C-alpha cells in the first residue's frame, strides 16, 4: 500500500473522480475546493459510475492551499482557463521532494508550471475520460478513465520512463485507473490533439455532436484534413505521429455514441473555452517551427470570435 | 424610349425591384411569378425605397412561361438554388435574337445557361443591392442598386464592351439603375467573390453581422486571409485582381451599418443557401487550375454541413 499523499487542485469532473477513486483505494487524498467547499466538507463526495457507484462521506476538504498538509503529488485538475491561479496556488504546496502532475488538455502548460515550481518537479498526464460534475461534490462518470502519463524536462525533452512515473502508475492502478506510460510527453500531447483539435473545435463552431459530424461527408473530409495538419504541426516540432492513426481514430469516432466534446459542454455551460491550450499553444509552437497550418488557424480564429462574443453577451446580461 | 421588351424570371427582392423600376421608366416588362402570382395579377407590385416609394397596380403577370410574349431580354433573377428550373423555363422564351441576362451571385452559371440557350445569347450581371421581399408583391429596397454588366462567350472568354451591353445599360439607366460595364465578366465575378466568400460564409457559420465580424481582430485577419485566397483563386484562372483592393474593401465593410448578408438572410429564412454558386463553382474552377485554397474549402465544408443539417431538420418537422 502506497504511503504517498495526494493533493487534488480542482475537485470537479476530473479531479473529483480521480481523487475519490484514489481515496477509496486507501490513499491519503486532500481536496482543494472553491465553490463547493462548504458542501463537500460536510457531505463529502458522491461518484456515480458504470464501474460502481460510491460515496465518501468524509474527505479532507480545503478552501485554501495554506491549510493543506505536505503532499507528495500535487495534481492540477483545474481547467487550463484557470491556470492564472497557479502562481498563487502552487508555491505554498511545494516541499522538498514533491511533484506536480498536470492533468490537463492541450500542450504548453508544463513549461508554465515549471516556471513556478522548477523544471524537475513537473509531470504531465492526458485523461481519456467522459465525466461530468452534476452537482456540488457529485460526479457522474460516464465512460473511460485511462491516463497517459509522461515526465517533463525543460523544453519537453523526452524523459523516458522514470521512477516517479512508475510510482504514480502504481497508485492509480491501485484505484483501477488504467495508466499508460509515455517516454515522450510532448509526443503524447500532440497525439491527443489529433482528436481534440478537429472535434472540440468543430463541435463548438457547428453546434454538433461527434455523430452528426461523422455522418457528414464534408465534415469527415475536413476532420481528416485537420488531423493531417496536426500531424504536420507535430512533425515540425520533431514529433513523428503515425499517419495511419488518423483513419483508425475516425473509425473509432464514428462508432462512438453521440458525444458532446468537453469544449462543447463548456460552451453550453457558459464556461471559458480551453482555446489557448488546445489551439493557441500548439499553433504558436508549430508555426514557430515553420509549419503552415491554415485550417487549424481558421478554427482558432472562429473560436476566438465565439468566445469573445460570449464574454460581451455575458457582460451585457 | 427603348422598345425592348423584358421578361423577369423571379419577381422577388431583386427581380421585383429591377423589373418594377424598368416598367415605371416606361419599358414593357413581363413578370414570371410562382407563389405570388394570384396576388400580383390582381394587386400589382409595391416598392418601398429611399429613392422613392411607388406602386404599379397593374403588371403583366404570368404563372407559366408558355403564356409570356416574345421578349428581347430574359432576366434570370431567381436564386441560383432554383437554377434546376432553367431547362424548363428558358427554352419556351427563346426567340430569334433575344438574350438571357443572368443576374445572380457567384460564378459558373452562365456556362450552364449557355448549354440551354446557346453560347451567344448569354449576358451576366452582378447586383450590388440591399433589397428584401417583405410580402406578396411587396419589395423593400434598402440601399444601393448598381449592376456590373458583362457579356458572355464560351469559357468566359472576355468579350469587351458589346453593343447589346450598351443597350441594356441604356434601358436600366433610364430606370435610374447605375450600370457599370465590364470587359471581362469572369473577372467581375471573381471581384465580387472577394467580398461574398468571407462575409456570406462567415456570417452564417458564426451567426454574425458584418459589424460584429469587423469588430473582431481574429475575424478581420481571417477575412483578409480568405480574400487573399479568392485573389489567388482568380489568379490561377488568369484573372488578375488588384491586391490592394482588399484593404479598401475591409475599410468599406467596417464603415457599413450592421448588415446581414444575403446568405445569412436565406439561412434565417430557412431558404436554400447559394453555396455552390458562391463556393463550390469557384473552388472547382480554381483548384482545377492548380490553386490550393484551404480556407475557402473549410468554409465550404462547414456550410455544406449546416445546410445538410437544416434539410434534415426540416424533413423531420
Blueprint (SSEs and pairs):
The structure is a homodimer of 317-residue chains.
Chain A: E1 5-9, H1 15-24, E2 28-32, H2 37-43, E3 45-48, E4 54-56, E5 60-62, E6 73-76, H3 86-89, E7 99-103, H4 109-117, E8 122-135, E9 138-151, H5 163-174, E10 179-182, H6 185-205, H7 210-214, H8 217-236, H9 245-255, H10 262-269, H11 275-288, H12 294-316
Parallel strand pairs in A: 1-2, 1-6, 2-5, 3-9, 6-7, 7-8, 9-10
Antiparallel strand pairs in A: 3-4, 8-9
CATH class categorisation of the largest domain in chain A: Alpha Beta
Number of strands of chain A: 10
Order of helices and strands of chain A: EHEHEEEEHEHEEHEHHHHHHH
Greatest contact between two chains? A-B, 24 and 24 residues
User: Radius of gyration of chain A from the CA trace?
Assistant: 19 Å
Low-confidence stretches of chain A: none
Mean pLDDT over the full residue set of chain A: 95
- Name the assembly state: homodimer
Integer tally of domains of chain A = 2
The secondary-structure class of chain A comes to alpha/beta
How would you characterize the largest beta sheet of chain A? 10 strands, mixed
CATH topology of the largest domain in chain A: Rossmann fold
Q: Which CATH architecture of the largest domain in chain A is right?
A: 3-Layer(aba) Sandwich
- Summed up, the helix count of chain A is 12
Domain Ketopantoate reductase C-terminal (chains A, B): 184-306
GO molecular function (chains A, B): 2-dehydropantoate 2-reductase activity
EC number (chains A, B): 1.1.1.169
Pfam families (chains A, B): ApbA (PF02558), ApbA_C (PF08546)
Amino acid at each position: 500500500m502506497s504511503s504517498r499523499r495526494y493533493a487534488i487542485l480542482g475537485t470537479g469532473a476530473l479531479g473529483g473522480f480521480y481523487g475519490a477513486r484514489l481515496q477509496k483505494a486507501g490513499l491519503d487524498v486532500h481536496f482543494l475546493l472553491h465553490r463547493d467547499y462548504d458542501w463537500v466538507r460536510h457531505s463529502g463526495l458522491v461518484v456515480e459510475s458504470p464501474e460502481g457507484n460510491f460515496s465518501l462521506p468524509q474527505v479532507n476538504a480545503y478552501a485554501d492551499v495554506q491549510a493543506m498538509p505536505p503532499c507528495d503529488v500535487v495534481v492540477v485538475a483545474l481547467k487550463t482557463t484557470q491556470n492564472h491561479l497557479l502562481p498563487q496556488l502552487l508555491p505554498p504546496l511545494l516541499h522538498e521532494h514533491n511533484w506536480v502532475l498536470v492533468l490537463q488538455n492541450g500542450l504548453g502548460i508544463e513549461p508554465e508550471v515549471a516556471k513556478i515550481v522548477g523544471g524537475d518537479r513537473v509531470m504531465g498526464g492526458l485523461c481519456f475520460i467522459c465525466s461530468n460534475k452534476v452537482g456540488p461534490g457529485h460526479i457522474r462518470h460516464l465512460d473511460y478513465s485511462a491516463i497517459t502519463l509522461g515526465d517533463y524536462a525543460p523544453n519537453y525533452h523526452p524523459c523516458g520512463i522514470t521512477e516517479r512515473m512508475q510510482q504514480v502508475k502504481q497508485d492509480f492502478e491501485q484505484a483501477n485507473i488504467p495508466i499508460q506510460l509515455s517516454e515522450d510527453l510532448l509526443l503524447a500531447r500532440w497525439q491527443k490533439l489529433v482528436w481534440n483539435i478537429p472535434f472540440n473545435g468543430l463541435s463548438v463552431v457547428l453546434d454538433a455532436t461527434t455523430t452528426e459530424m461523422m455522418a457528414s461527408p464534408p465534415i469527415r473530409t475536413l476532420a481528416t484534413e485537420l488531423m493531417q495538419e496536426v500531424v504536420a504541426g507535430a512533425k515540425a516540432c520533431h514529433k513523428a505521429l503515425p499517419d495511419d492513426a488518423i483513419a483508425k481514430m475516425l473509425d473509432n469516432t464514428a462508432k462512438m455514441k453521440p458525444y458532446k466534446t468537453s469544449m462543447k459542454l463548456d460552451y453550453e455551460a457558459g464556461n471559458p473555452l480551453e482555446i489557448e491550450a488546445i489551439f493557441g499553444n500548439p499553433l504558436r509552437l508549430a508555426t514557430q517551427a515553420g509549419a503552415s497550418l491554415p485550417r487549424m488557424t481558421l478554427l482558432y480564429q472562429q473560436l476566438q470570435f465565439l468566445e469573445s462574443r460570449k464574454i460581451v453577451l455575458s457582460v451585457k446580461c
